[in-house]
């Protein structure tokens, strides 16, 4: 750790040489007090132990740090991967949620767009407008039949399969069998029948969406 | 003594040698640590430093409900280093036991994922065996990319390649536009490019040999900036419906092109702008290039009788006429025209007694010509200009046309009359829709709007519409015009085709003969259109459908599409049925 690695050892050997040429005749004997004052070995051991402990701690800390660095790298690449998976799933969702796909599936299930417009006013239970059963003769279903608004992304995405029991037309058995499969499925299968405005606009005017509102499942 | 001297000499030599070495080492040390220090440190850091580009994502284009019309998606290029590709096969070490995989087997596995044959892949690799880079397959999906990476074939690499996807295909495809290899090419993609584009960032850090960041090293980061989200006024589902409706009708009557517009009266928001033919931005090859833009903005045409609504509103506002002004309509109009010129109606008739409302109801060219005599041509020109004829709409769509409105002093005596029923003047569908929006909005022209705004990554919103509303005619004259237009639906020649049970509709049809391209007279083809306002008692929506040149000479050809679209609009936006029947307006005397 010390940067001062270079120092000059030149002078000391010369002094030593001089001392050897004139050996001392008198021996100096250390007093008891002096001997007691000498450093004890235990201090040395403690100091060295502390130094080693510091080294060890530093080593462990470095290992932990570099381990963390690897973990960060790994997690970051995982994050990128999950981000990609999420965006790929979003892409798929947007595609299957496209108007063309929803319309084609609704048609496949035997749904028809309502031909007239009738509203149920909740404040006074009044039916407004032309409340005739949907014929599907005008507008949506007919023009939706031909592929005037293509979407090449939908190639290879299969349409929903109508259960064999309810095959043929949009009869109630069809939707009930759907509803019995999953409770929330009932609510989903209802909304497209009210028109192509199945997304977005349901929030504000949901109360007017359809006559027989699906009863919510409370937990 | 001699011994001592030689010892002293040796000592001196050693000392000198040691000193020299120390001096040299010290000098070198000072050189490294002090003189070259900064330079060396920089070099050392550089060799450890890695600069990584972090990609920003191009923004999405969404409709008014937030449904995605255009979005960025991850695609990957599978690349190869022909130099490092094992032509003689390789040992798949990750298998247990290790198996030998031949080059053809490896390429076969890739080909199965990317849909290429082994021969195709081989050709790419053998084209330049010494090179270090070639594309094997471009823009593959995440699933293919992951599978190829899992194969762990030496010499095969990959790189991210951001791409664009249009989940709703041709829905509003003409508006959204598309991206080419050089960036945005058309539509909103091009118009709002500065909002949508992203900025790539960089991340610089010191890395170990295996690419891991060295702990504690400083990271210099410039964060990437994602592009903003452009929100359109378009409603995806409605646009799909209108596109279908006009396409079906255009095929039925043999029109080469058609447009359909739904505009909200209160704020001029374009809820649907449909074009036929339409473009699927995911699959440009399927569409002829001339259909790439939006016809509703780019293609002006002589609109014909739909202009009579504007003429009537202008004359009312100028005080030149009233809804009940009584005129006598002869079988031909020649007043003030050069010898041999005349104006006639689409139906032959004797002398008729119409009011202004009657002129509109029966779409009489002669009638509107007579009515227009009471106002000078400069004033009539100025009204048209105020309605937005001859200038681009506030949308400013790329490739948008302003149409043609000649200065009044260039109108000859014939043009001075024909402009009143939409001949000798041209306008785009967007402009015609705007005229009806102005009349429906009690005389105030709300600038047509297609882009609601751009929400940037940091949350700020820009590109909001800035144009100000313009008062064009008085409320009284606008409202009176709407009332008169109701007679077109209640009693006009094709009124029964326009009626929607339960609602009061005001509409005007147009059957405009198409001028021949050589400038002499007219062809036997017609541009059919219907523009309408509903509900008439409190206008909320304007619908305009236009069908390009067809031999069918009656706007009955356009009426079914108008009725379907208007019905859908009323249903979708839950407009309550009218409670009162249309008021009686006197049309004859």
Characterize the structure shown.
The complex is a heterodimer of chains A (219) and B (589). Helices cover 51% and strands 4% of the residues of chain A. Chain A is mostly helical and 219 residues long. Chain A has a two-stranded antiparallel ribbon with strand order 1-2. Chain A is rod-shaped. In chain A, 14% of the residues are buried. The termini of chain B are far apart. In chain B, the strands form eight sheets. In chain B, strands 2, 3, 6, 7, 12, 20 and 21 form a seven-stranded mixed sheet that branches. In chain B, helix 3 runs antiparallel to helix 5, helix 9 (236-253) runs antiparallel to helix 19 and helix 11 packs antiparallel against helix 17 (475-491). The mean pLDDT of chain B is 89. Chains A and B meet through helix 3, helix 4 and helix 5 of A and helix 1, strand 3, helix 9 and helix 19 of B.
Give the SSE map.
The complex is a heterodimer of chains A (219) and B (589).
Chain A: H1 11-21, H2 32-37, H3 41-96, H4 99-108, E1 118-121, E2 126-129, H5 140-145, H6 172-181, H7 183-190, H8 202-205
Antiparallel strand pairs in A: 1-2
Helix pairs in contact in A: 6-7
Chain B: H1 2-35, H2 37-48, E1 49-54, E2 61-62, E3 68-80, E4 90-92, E5 99-101, H3 103-114, H4 118-127, E6 134-140, H5 142-151, E7 156-165, H6 173-176, E8 179-180, E9 183-184, H7 187-191, H8 193-196, E10 201-206, E11 220-222, E12 229-232, H9 236-253, E13 258-264, E14 270-276, H10 295-298, H11 307-317, E15 326-329, E16 332-333, E17 343-344, E18 352-355, H12 356-361, H13 365-372, H14 377-386, H15 413-418, H16 429-440, E19 444-445, E20 451-455, E21 461-462, E22 470-471, H17 475-491, H18 495-498, E23 506-515, E24 522-534, E25 541-550, H19 559-572
Parallel strand pairs in B: 2-12
Antiparallel strand pairs in B: 1-10, 2-3, 3-6, 3-7, 4-5, 8-9, 10-11, 12-20, 13-14, 13-25, 15-18, 16-17, 19-22, 20-21, 23-24, 24-25
Helix pairs in contact in B: 3-5, 9-19, 11-16, 11-17
